[in-house]
Amino acid sequence: MTGKSNDEIIIREAAPADIDIIARLRVELLIEIGNCPSKKEDAEELFDAVRYYFKDKLQSDECKVFIAVHKKEIIATSALIRFIKPPTAGNLTGLDGHVLNMYTVTKWRGQGLAEKLLNQIISYARAKGYKRLWLDAVPEAKPLYEKVGFKVNHQTSTSRANLDMEMFLD
Model pTM? Predict the structure, then answer.
């Protein structure tokens, strides 16, 4: 089954009412990349922890979540976590961002939703003065991230999401 056309899809910032679905999609992502407990009770505990995290952080500038919605159904998600470090000559604000939770429901993949969400994150980060974004990518997503400006920093072997990528914002 494939999704509908993109003209019926809205990209927007997540709201508190979206937290349960965002948490469920994060757990689905972690299962897919092999980074989730195998026991159902442990997965439920993870879901509760993820839900608590987003409930705590979503209303602040520490975490921005953007979602793609089709007829009130959240079909893709992305997040930007703010990091503030001591300023450097190249980054006087000290603002960096970690992009994560890039996940599209299986039947909606291949329709450009991840790219639209990434572009929303990049626009938001630029407007807020972020100087660098980074993420951990699965190999299949590398072309998408390169298309929007990310470059491979190095490769790790700790999980399936083993490509450390970054982009510098002007």
Answer: 0.87
